[in-house]
């Protein structure tokens, strides 16, 4: 979809659908909405007076004015209570707008910046979130459908104030680039598991190469030389050997330290010998969402020209049951040299991540390291599908990620890593166990990973509850969300600015 910022009067803008907004409780429309209302003979005011429209968040009033504006259809979108409105709400309302546009087969949509003016949102920030919302909301995974979904071809973002429009243009461009990177990740996560095996994920990663990005894929022989016992064990049950994907973006000056992003890339998780129940197993294709998200974050960083050196490390495996699969009771020697007793082969994510964390730490000596994974069902129990779990060994890094979460609108909630939790993962046979029992499953999984980060400032994002939506929520349609790309790009931009 083409996204353009246009300076001028939205009343005169030609489009298939024209969109303005109102905050809840507004009695007399002002600004652009007031101008449109006057042009269509007070139809919006009449709807308010008759109680047909209250301006509640996400509420939509559709009108066919017939004359007065440059579009046959007019939508008024509710922004909810003004005091609660944030920049991320600008993104969320775009789903309602694009859904309506698709339904009426609109090719061109003209919209104001939602939240600028009366809402007090900075126009640059608002433009970024509106563009991001437009790109994300126009997304459909219809590769396997004979009848393709209708997509809006052009989104015109109209701002009457020319100075404000000039400022907002840069934000609009950034929102588009970020949205395109997220949608790239969503395609990877949505792909059927037979199409997105470890070799296919590695092939997709290679498309990122070019300019300041290089991609290296290590196969089974290289992993054996690295003594990557965790990755090799988990991948042993599949006919497709594991891969270790390493994507480097060199956007910083010479001598700029690396920031390492490590993402879980289990392209399909049956649970291995500790086989999962059949209900819901089809969704285990999204167990590589952390890996896809880290690669997409690097893609976005390169597109946005963030002046940092960023490396994404993604161990890609299939966790399958077979005669060659690893077993409960096995003791694995990981790349770090630490030994791990396997109690469940369905706790495989931490076994591949511990090797990837060791690799990133030893090869790049990063200033900071963050991993992301659909790691535990316990995180879904604790936080649902609203927020990801956040843990870390470094208070400063965790604080920066909390700030990035608040600014990006992608919610994260900190969980503790008290030393007492380590007792649950101590092994009598090896040094660690790969599960810590029924209590605090998300935290003990995080503590397990902490043991491999060494002295490197490290944080962990458990995205199990937010990487996939079963139904529409928080501005996302059902399906993959691309988490945690929004949060991490915000973190990288702040880091490059010294915040």
List the helices and strands and how they pair.
Blueprint lengths: L1 E6 L9 E6 L8 H9 L3 H7 L10 E4 L9 E6 L8 H17 L4 E4 L11 H15 L16 E6 L2 H29 L7 H9 L6 E6 L1 H7 L2 H7 L7 E8 L7 E6 L1 E5 L19 H16 L4 E11 L11 E3 L5 E3 L7 H16 L3 E6 L3 H7 L4 E5 L2 H14 L3 E3 L17 E2 L7 H13 L4 E5 L5 E2 L9 E2 L4 H12 L3
Parallel strand pairs: 1-6, 2-4, 2-5, 5-6, 9-11, 9-14, 10-11, 13-17, 14-18, 15-16
Antiparallel strand pairs: 3-4, 7-8, 8-11, 12-13, 15-18, 19-20
Helix pairs in contact: 3-4, 4-5, 5-9, 8-10, 9-14, 10-13, 12-14
Structural class by helix and strand composition? alpha/beta
Indicate the CATH topology of the largest domain.
Aminopeptidase
How many domains? The number is 2
Q: What proportion of the residues is helical, as a percent range? A: 25-40%
Q: How many runs of DSSP E, i.e. beta strands?
A: 20
Which spans of ≥5 residues are poorly predicted at pLDDT below 50? none
Calculate Rg over CA atoms: 24 Å
CATH superfamily of the largest domain: Zn peptidases
**Can you count the helices?**
14
User: Could you report the average pLDDT, rounded to the nearest whole number?
Assistant: 97
- The rough form would be described as elongated
Major sheet: size, sense and barrel closure? 9 strands, mixed
Give the CATH architecture of the largest domain. 3-Layer(aba) Sandwich
Just give the CATH class of the largest domain.
Answer: Alpha Beta
| Distance between the first and last residues' Cα | 33 Å
Strand content: 15-25%
How would you describe this structure to a colleague?
This protein has 499 residues and is an alpha/beta fold. It folds into 2 domains: 2-176, Leucine Aminopeptidase, subunit E, domain 1, CATH 3.40.220.10; 191-496, Zn peptidases (Aminopeptidase). Strands 7, 8, 9, 10, 11, 14, 15, 16 and 18 form a 9-stranded mixed beta sheet that branches. The protein is 36% helix and 20% strand. The chain contains 14 helices and 20 strands. Helix 12 packs across helix 14 (485-496). The model has no long low-confidence stretch (mean pLDDT 97). It has helices spanning 31-39, 43-49, 87-103, 123-137, 162-190, 198-206, 220-226, 229-235, 289-304, 349-364, 377-383, 395-408, 441-453, 485-496, and strands at residues 2-7, 17-22, 60-63, 73-78, 108-111, 154-159, 213-218, 243-250, 258-263, 265-269, 309-319, 331-333, 339-341, 368-373, 388-392, 412-414, 432-433, 458-462, 468-469, 479-480.
